[in-house]
Amino acid sequence: MSKEWGSEMKRIVVEFERGGKFTGELYEKEAPKNSKMIWDALPFEGQAWHGIWSGHGVLVKTPFSPAVENPLTVIQHGMIGFLPHIPGLPGTQEAELTFAMGYLRPRTPYTGDCPLYVVGRLNGTFEELREVSKRIQRQGMEKLRISVAETT
Question: What does the CA dihedral 128, 132, 138, 141 come to, rounded to 10 degrees?
């Protein structure tokens, strides 16, 4: 697959250290700036951890500064998006790339509902995604790697 932006659908692979490998795609039309920012940084690795709002997700801190694009507050399983820095929260924050491992609704105790800037979607069944989420919840953080998917 070409790494050139704008040439074809941007397919990715998200792989978890203790098992779980998912293909997915970045939404070039719906979130062009944020998708390109991720694409240009591939391969990307980080420590993934489990998060619960009103649903399960796996998050990884990033050095990115996402644009406000494709904001949604009700998230379907498999969606990939940025949980942005929320003004007024204590401490320094980095944008967190979030993988919805079930249906969720991001919230904070300070602001209530907050948007997820959706940039793509993972392929995989609800059960497969949920299993990775539950494992990280029980066993703790693990390495996550995002890379360009090879085409055959």
Answer: 180
